[in-house]
Amino acid sequence: MFLGTRPYEHAATSTAKEPSTLWDDYKQSFHFAPASPRGSFCVGGIVTVHGFLGKRRDISAKAAFIDVVHPGQVRPVQVRSAWDVEGSPEHVLHQQLKSASAYSPVAVTGEVESVGDEENKENSLLRLQSIQVLNEFPRNIIVSKGVQFPATARHLQMRFSEVLQRRLAFRSDVAGWSRRHLTEAGFREFETPVLFKSTPEGAREFVVPTRRRGFAYALPQSPQQFKQILMASGVAGGYFQFARCFRDEDLRADRQPEFTQLDLEMAFATGEDVMQAVERYTKDLFAYLGENYRVTTDDSGDSNFEAAPIPVEALGSVKGTQPARSFAVLPSEPFQRMSYDEVMARFGSDKPDLRIPGEIHRLDSVVPAGFKRMITSLEDPIIDAWRLRLDNGDPYQSREFVKQLFDNLPPALAKNPEGMTAVLIYNLGRPLCGLDPLGHEAFGEITDPSTETHKRLAELADFQDGDILLLQARKREPFFSGGSTAMGQIRIEAYRKAVELGLLPCDDSFRFLWVVGFPMFTPTEAKADDPGQGGHAGFSATHHPFTAPLTEEDFELLQTDPLRAKADHYDLVVNGVELGGGSRRIHVAAVQEAVMRDILKMDDAGVAQFGHLLEALRAGCPPHAGFALGFDRLVAVLSGTNSVRDVIAFPKSMKGEDLSVKSPGRLTPAQLETYHLALRPGKTE
Ligand code: ASP
User: What are the angstrom distances between the C-alpha of 580 and each of 425, 514, 631?
Assistant: First the structure.
C-alpha cells in the first residue's frame, strides 16, 4: 500500500466542499438502514449490509461484482450489479456503483442470490438494489498491497494492514482471556490512579504540572505502591489490573514511554506462590492459543493469526502462506529456574535465549598473557569464550558470516573500551590445520597447533571444521551486575544473524525460564539511565526498594555487605525477552524504612515520599508478593514480532513522539502562565 504522489495532508484538505453541497451530502449519509443479521440471509430475501467497498471487478460494460467488507465479519459480502436497458433503474444504480470510490463506507441493500458458508469460505451474494455512500474515501490516497503508510497516517496503516488488524484483534482476545482466567482464579480487577505523585521508586517519571503553583502530579511508573496498599487494605482475593505505566527512559524497539502491564498482587503469599500462579496463567494461555489459533507466515515473513476453525480474515486473503503452525502446548513440568549469577556466567545475559546453542566459558586460565594483551588493555581481565557452530561446517562461509556480523554490530559492541572481540575459525584445510585468526596477523600460541594452549583449547571446545571461536575480555569484578556482558550481547547478535542468513535453523519454540536470585542492589553507575532512589549509598535497588531479601543469610548480608545480598525477585523470560518480573515485598514498615534509610541512605525527604506506603505496612499489612507481565511484550512475542509497536494501536516513535497526533505538543505562553511555569532562557530544544 502506498500514498499517492501527494502527501496525505493535501489529501485531507482536497475533500473540502462548497457549503451548499456540504450539508446536503451530510444529510445523505446521516440516516442509513440498519444492517441485517447474517443469520437472517435466505435466498430471495432483501437484506442490508454495511462495510467498506472493495475493488470492483467489471465483467463487461453492463455487469460488475464488488465486495463489501465489514471489519468485524469473517467473509466479505459480494454484490452483483447488472443492467440491460439504457436509462433503466438498474443502469442508474450501476452508474452510482461505478462512481463510488473504493474503500468508502457504504450501506448496500440487495436481494440474496446465494448464502455464504463461512467454513467453506464462500461469500454471500446479493443483487444490488441500492447503495448509499456514507463518506467518500479520497481518490488520491492510493492503496496497493504491502506498502507502509507513514507513521503520521496510522489510521490508514491499521485500516489496510491485515497483519496489524489481526495482531490488534489477537491482543484484545488475549486480554479478554486473561481477565477471565484471573477472575476465575479468584483475582479481582482494581483501578489505581494515573495521576500519582513523584516517588523515587527507580525509573524516571513524567510529571504533570497543576494549576496550583509549584505542585505537580507524576504518572505512575507502575501501580506498585497502590497494589501494596491494596494488600494492606485487606481486599478479597488477589488484585490484578491492565495497568498503563509511564517511564521516561531511553527507548528501544521493545520499550515505549507508556506501556501496558498485566499487574498482579497476592496477600498471604510468598514469591513461590506468585510464580506458580503466573506459570499456571502462561500454560493455560498456551493451551487456549493452541486450541484457537494457527500462525502462518506470509511472504514478508510477518506472522498472521488465524482463529481456528474459522479464520479471522477481514480484508482479503493472505497470499503465499507457509503451512500453518499451532501454538504448542507447553510441557507440564515446571519452568526451568536459574539464578542471576548462573545465567550471567553461562549466557552473559539476565534474560537468556535458551534457543541459542552453546554456552560461554571462561578461558582466562587457559589463554596466555601475550594473547590477552593483544585483545585488551585491561590489567587482569576475565576472558569469555563462545564457540559457534553453523550448519554448513565450511570455514570460508564462517569467515564470510563473521565479516557480515562485525560489519553490523551495534556501536557499543563494535567500540568496546574493554577490548575488541577476537575471532578464530577452525579450519582443517590450513597447512597445519587449526585455529585461523580473523583480522589479525597471528595470535601466537593460540593459533599454533603445536602449542599446549592450542591443544587445551581444542580439547575444551571439541572443534569441527568451520567452528567459530569468539573471545572477549571484560573487567574482573567480584560479582556480576547489570543485564549483560559484551560476550552475551555478541552471542545474541551472532545467533540472530545466523538465523536470518539461514546458517542456523529457525527455532520457533517458546523456551520459558525463571531467573531468580538477583542482587538486591546494583552499583549506581551500572544503571546510568535509572535515577534510582536518590540515596547516598552508591547503589540503588536493582528492581525497586520494596523487594524482600531472598534468604535469612541475605538479611545478614544487608547489614554487612549489601551488594552481595540477593533478593526474592523473579523474572519470567522467554526466548531472550523479559516478559515480566515480580518479587516478594517487605511487608513490615520498620524493615522497609531501615532499607531506605540505613542501607540505601535516603534522606528524610526521600523516605517521607513513601510515607503513605509505610503507614499502610504499619497497619498490620499481611505478607504479600506480586508480579507484572509486560502485556505489549507478551503479545509481540506471541505474534512473532520483535517490536512492541506492531501490537500497539497508537505507538510512540523512538523519540517518544506520537506522529499521528503530533504529541508531545509545544507549551503555549498561555499554558506556561496557567501552570506557573517558565522556560529556562538561552536553551534551545
Ligand atoms: N512493579 C514492578 C515493575 O513494574 C513489578 C512488580 O514487582 O510487581 O516492574
Answer: 38, 10, 9
